[in-house]
Design goal:
Elements: H1 2-12, E1 28-36, H2 41-58, E2 62-67, H3 72-75, E3 78-85, H4 88-100, H5 102-111, E4 118-127
Length: about 140
């Protein structure tokens, strides 16, 4: 069900593409699912809204979309999002630079002053099919 939801949303977002994607059909999408500690979803959303998206862009990641599931079981503790990268290698470089960024370290420490926010991270890389409206 989650993948069907993401596929439909990707079709709706078919016009979203970074400048480097014009001549490069090798970009990859990273679908990430974060599960938060109880009561911490709002803290995670605040951190993304105020800091993380900008830091991702700084390190070459393209923010595609962010969602909170409507399923009551996951709605209170789950954030799903999609990033685009030039390649798997570029993704690894971007994540390494992001993780080492002093601003990120400061933001993370401040946001977790009262305990960890994220307790589980799932990441899946996907490449667009030849018939996908979004590449």
């Amino acid at each position: 069900m989650k993948w069907m939801f993401l596929a439909v949303l990707a079709l709706a977002l078919g016009t979203v593409a970074p400048a480097w994607a014009d001549d490069d059909t090798s970009r990859v999408f990273e679908i990430r699912t974060y599960t938060t500690a109880p009561g911490k979803l709002e803290d995670l959303q605040r951190r993304f809204r105020e800091h993380t998206l900008k830091l991702f862009e700084r390190h070459g990641m393209v923010n595609i979309a962010y969602w909170i599931p409507q399923d009551p079981k996951a709605a209170s503790n789950t954030l799903i999002y999609v990033l685009a990268h030039k390649s798997r290698e570029a993704a690894a470089q971007s994540w390494a630079a992001f993780s080492a960024d002093p601003e990120w370290k400061q933001v993370r420490a401040a946001s977790e002053a009262n305990g960890p926010i994220v307790i589980k991270v799932e990441s899946t890389f996907a490449a667009a099919t030849d018939f996908s409206p979004m590449k």
